[in-house]
Amino acid sequence: MNMPGTFRAVVHISARQAEHPRAWAILGPMVDDERWKARFRAARVSLPGWAKDAPHRSTYRSNVTGTWEIYAWDRATGERRQVTDRPNGTWMGGVDPTGEWIWWFADTDGDEFGVWMRQPFGGGPDETAIPGLEPAYPSGLARGSSGLTVVGRSTDDGHTLHLYRPGSAPEVLYHHTEDAHVGGLSRDETLIAIGHSEHGDSRHMALRVVRPDGSTVADLWDGEGKGVYSAGFSPVAADSRLLVGHERRGRPELLIWDPVAGTETELRVDLPGEIDADWYPDGSALLLSHSHEARDELYRYDLADGSLHRIDTPRGVIGGATARPDGTVEFAWTSAAEPPVIKSTAGTVVLTPEGPPAPPSVPVEDAWVPGPGGRIHALVSRPEGTGPYPTVFDIHGGPTAQDDDSFSPAAAAWVDHGFAVVRVNYRGSTGYGSAWRDAIEHRVGLTELEDIKAVRDWAVSSGLADPDRLVLAGASWGGFLTLLGLGTQPGDWTVGVAGVPVADYFAAYEDEMEGLKAFDRALFGGSPEEVPDRYRQSSPLTYVEQVQAPVLILAGENDPRCPIRQIDNYLARLAELGKPYEVYRYDAGHGSLVVEERLRQMEAEMTFARKHLGLL
C-alpha cells in the first residue's frame, strides 16, 4: 500500500556545483552494488555448541544455503551436514548432552509458536521430541544425559515448566501467570533452576531451585529492582553449585550459590563495565566475558584462589565463547571493520563457512555526548569524503541491548552509499550499569529519545551530520523509537524507516505474546488498564498527527512481538491524515532468516531514504 503525498524534489546539480567539495555527498558516491550485497550473502557460522558427554559432536547455525539453518559437525571425522531445511529458516537448536540427538524448535513461518523436534545426530527422520505437549512459545530447555528434560512453555494461560522422562507423559513441574523460564538442570539431574517473576517484575527476576518432584530446595531474590539470573549449574556430577548473575552494586556481577548447602559466594572482579560467565568443563574455573564501552574481553577466573587471567583476543566484540575439555577456548570474534570469525586460543580458526568472505567495512569511532541523564556513548561509522554527511541514526532494539564494535552489513551498506551511521546507546541500553538500563521505566520511549536527540544535536553541531538529511531508523524497539521520534520530534528528522515497530501500544499489548505483556507491565508499572496515561504518552499512534517526515514501515505478517494489527492501525491513521508513507510486508515473523529477503528489505530502506533525500 502506498499513500501519495508531498515529498522533497530530486536535487539537480549543475556542472559548476559538481565541482564543489560537498557535491559528492549530494550526488551520492559511486556504489559497487555487488560489494554491499556480498556482505549479506557471505556465508556465516555461529559458535559451535558441543555435547557434554561427546565433545566431538557439535551443532551450529549457518546461512550457507541462503537461509539460516541448523548444522551438525562431527569433529572426529570432519563431517558436516545440514539438519533442518525450512522455507523461512530455523534459529533455535542444539545437541543433547549424550550427542545422540539434535533438538530444534519448529514454529510456523517465524511466528515463534511451535514444538521441539529432534533428529538423530547421524541423520534420520525428525520426530516430536516431547509427545503430548501442545504448541507454545518457548521459555527455556534443559536436557540431562538420562533423557530427563525440563521444557518451558508460554501461552495465554501463563508460563509452565514441564518435566519429561522418556516413555512417560510430560508432567507439570511449575506454573504461574507471571513470566518464568528454565534456568538449568544439574549434572546429576537432581536440581532444577527456575527463573521467575512471581513478584510481578519480569525485568528483575528471582530464582528458585526445586527437585524433580517439585519440592523447593531454596529461593534467591535480592528485592525490588535487583534481578538474579541463572548462568548454569556446575558441569561436575554431584555438585550443587549454581552460577548466578546479580546486580547488588548497580551493575551485572557474579556469585556462586549452593542452594543445598545454603551458601553464597560473591565474586569480586576488579574490572569496569559488566561481567558474564560460564563454567570450565571441570568446574574449577569460570570463563568470564567482560563488556566495557561496546567491546569485550575474555578472562579465566580460578575459583580456588580468585585469580584472574586475561585471555588474548583482538580488540572488538566476542559474540560467544566456550571452554573446551582440553582447556582451549573457542570464541566468535568480530569488529565493525572485519566480518565474524570463529577462533580458538590454540591459534586456529575453528570453523570456516564455504564461499568467499564478506568484504570488510570501516572501523567505528567512539563519541561521548553530554545528555540529560549523563554521558551518552555513541558509535560513528564515517564514509569517505568530508562532512556534513547525510546521516542515518540506526537505533538498536531491545531495549535491553546495546550497539557495539561488531560487524554490521546494514551499517556498512549505508556507509557504502555515502551515509554516516550513528548508533546510540541510550538510557535503557545494557552495558552501562543497572541505573542506566532502568532509567526508561514509567517514561518509556520518551527518555530514550532525549538521549538520541542529544546525540543528533551533537552530530549536527560538530559538522558530522547534515541537518537537512537525517534518517531516523531502527527495528523492533528501534522501530518503535523511530515512529515515536517522528511524532514527538517532527522537526529533527527528514526521513523515517521503522522495521517491525510498536506503533499502537494499546493494540500491541492486546495481541503480543504473554512474556512480552509481562515485560511491558514491568516497564510501565502496570497494564494499559492500570496505567493508561503512561501507555498513551508512549504510543506512537498518539502523535501521528504531528509526523512530518515520510516514513517506510516494514512489517512481518506473522510477528508475535510487534503484531501486524497494531501496525495496520497506525498505517490507517497515516492514510486518513494524508501523510506520506510506504509499507513493506513480508511473510515471516519478527525479522527474516532468509538472506535474499533481508537484502530486499535493505534495498527498500536505502531506496526510500535516498529518494526522499534527493540522492537518487
TrEMBL record:
Signal sequence range: none
An example molecular function term from Gene Ontology annotations: aminopeptidase activity
Record organism: Thermomonospora echinospora
Keyword Phosphoprotein: no
Keyword Nucleotide-binding in record: no
Keywords, comma-separated and alphabetical: Aminopeptidase, Hydrolase, Protease
This protein's name: Dipeptidyl aminopeptidase/acylaminoacyl peptidase
Residue stretches making up the Peptidase S9 prolyl oligopeptidase catalytic domain: 406-614
Gene Ontology BP annotations: proteolysis
